Structures are given as C-alpha cells and as structure tokens.
Amino acid sequence: MSNLKNPIRSISLVISLLLSIVGTTVFGQNKVGILGVDHIGMNVPNMRQAVTFFTDVLGFSAVTTIGPVPLDDQWKKTNHIQPSTGPVTIKMIKAGTGANIELFEYSDNKGNNKQSGGDDISASHIAFYTSNIDQSVADLKSKGVQFLGDPFLMPSGDTEGERWVYFLSPWGSKMELVSYPKGKGYEKNSPSTILWSPKDYVDKSNEKNNQQPLTDTAIRSLVEKHLAIWNERNTQKRTSLMAQVYADNIEMVDSHFIANGQKEINGFVNDLQEKSPTARFTHIKAINVNHNVARLFWQNGTPEHPDAVTGMDLFVFENGKVVRLYVFVDEKK
User: Fold this and answer.
1) What's domain 216-329's architecture?
2) Which candidate, 12, 53, 192, 288, has a CA 20 to 30 Å from the CA of 294?
3) Residue 151 binned pLDDT confidence (cut-offs 50, 70, 90)
C-alpha cells in the first residue's frame, strides 16, 4: 500500500468505508442515520507494543491492518499532522463485545508524545466492562499492569452499584475497568432509555444458549394457564400463575394501551373482573403454535351471552415464558 500513486485518496476511501458502516441505514436512531459506536480510535507510539498489550494482556483480537500509508502535505495540513511526520499504520482490534478499537502508529512521529492530563480538553479513556472486577484487577496486576487506586463503589445516585478503577497502558494511556452486575441506580426509576452495556448483551446471549426449546405441547399448556390467569378471581392464586407463565418483564400490547410487567397486567385483570363479575374467557378454536409463537382465539362473556366480546391473543415465548402478548379485540358487529 505504501507504493500507491495516490495514498491520500486510498486512506480517504478506507475511512469513508468505515464511516459508512454506521451512517447509511434508514433505521438509525435519528435523521442522521447513526446506529451506534463502530470504533474508538487512538494513537500509539509503538504498534507492536500496543497489539501485544491488547491481545496478550487484555485478551482481545487484532483483525485488520492498513499501511504503512504515506501521507501527502495537504492531508497532513487538513488533519493537523506535523509536516515531517512519516507514514501511518492502522490496526483494528476486536475488543470483546462492543465497539472496536482502532490503533494508529505514525512513523517518525513529530507530534506531541506527552499523554493528556486528567483535566485536559483532549483527555479521553476507554472503559472495559467485567463481571468480576476483583478477579480482573488481580489478573492484570499479575501481568504488570499499573492501577491508579483500588476499585471504588458508587454509593448512591444514577451510578449506584457501579464499581470502577483506572489503570494505565504501557505507553501511559488511561483506561478503566467497570462492573455493575446488578445494574445501576438510575434503572430503579424505570427510565424510558437504558444505557447500552456489554453486560446485557452477554446476559441475553447466555440465556439464549442455555434455553431449552419449548415443545408445542408445553406451549399449549402455558396458553391454557394464561386463560386460567384471566379467569382467576383470587389475587394470590393469579399472581402465582403469572409467575409460571409470564416473564418478569412481559409486555402486553393492546390497541389502546401497553402494560409492562406482571403487576400492571394483574391490575388490568382486576379491573376487568370488577366490571364484569360473572364473565369468563374461553377459547373458541384450537391453539395454534409455530415455533416460539402461539395464538389463541377467545371469547368473553356471561353464561347467558358467552361471546359478548371475541378476539385473539398472540404470544411470543423466550426462556420458557411469555415475553410479549399482543391482544386483538374484534370489532362489535
């Protein structure tokens, strides 16, 4: 690549391709189309040293390499690079679950080789999540990693329950270990937006890997219990049944409202029964099952008028329980 006739164009194309990964889809978080963080870039004084640290010490994987690429004068001027700095080599590191890390090494670097201070505008750090921070600290210390103190537990506020500690790379860049296996304080308030975490991704992956697929017979049995839940007048018995059938974070979607969690659904069932004390739910067709999805056609009414209301429930199952319930009520004739 160092022999390319137009190296500045080559590296521009490479960077454009990398940026396009996060910016060209219509399903982004906003009108810009950004989905999330693809990578974090950082300059290192010695690429071999940096790759050894990220792979042998932290356990990551070096994946791609670009360069060395010579940079022309205009590129250096545009990107605030010293005129006499040499070619750049770029490596992309897969850092477990989450954003990748892009390492830059400039040959014969004429830039400032001093690390930013903690309160400098240019200061930054990368935080790595661990499920056991004490074990991670002990392992890294055994490999000669320098820590800037001991893990600190956040006692209150939005980050309550989080433990963190800073450490240094061999070239002096500040990094962090962080852990909050039981979540953070702000989550207790049921916020509309939850911060992304590799913890959640790993937890869900483990659940999926450990999940035993339900048989059609088991799913039909759970749907029958669902009917029993909506007919049960005893709150304690109904709550016990819900725990067997519904996931803790079940979402029930009706055309007029969304109920989240067993408690909200329980309250809705209570209100429904108070309005119609003698009404009951029964199914009017066989329960249909398709892998982890099932549908139930039902009617609700009094013994004198059992089909006063009719509709269909659609169930989505994960880990042996209903995680989503979609309710369709037929229009009155």
Assistant:
1) Roll (3.10)
2) 192
3) very high
